[in-house]
Design a protein that fits this description.
Layout (H helix, E strand, L loop, with lengths): L3 H10 L4 E4 L11 E14 L5 E13 L9 H10 L1 H4 L6 E6 L3 E5 L2 E4 L3 E5 L8
Parallel strand pairs: 1-7, 3-4
Antiparallel strand pairs: 2-3, 4-5, 6-7
Amino acid sequence: MNTTLPFIAALREHPDANLHIVLPDDDIVPAHFHVTEIGRVRKDFIDCGGTARSTTHCQLQLLVASDVDHRLTAGKLAKIFELSEPVLRGDDLPLVIEHEDCRTIAFPLQSFEASAEQITIRHPINPATP
């Protein structure tokens, strides 16, 4: 899984790039999505074997609204990450994308590719998929 610091560095390196998000079912998040929040999420739990566990990640929440002319560049997303710095505390956290369409899904960022034109964010690779 990729983490926040390399992702933020890529956003800063390519501030004019468009963001292209590929969902786990290979659908694409419409280009007019909004980032509604960036948060630090901690989960403390007991697994089925009775072992206490804890995870912490950065969650990037997306919303697709009706304003189809909206576009979020990599530079704008980098600025939103800068505003979230007090919450993220500079930690290099695993990055999880949360997207709501007909259902809400959250998935870890598996990889991203960055160029001057586009940053593509991908879901985890399904081992059953060739």
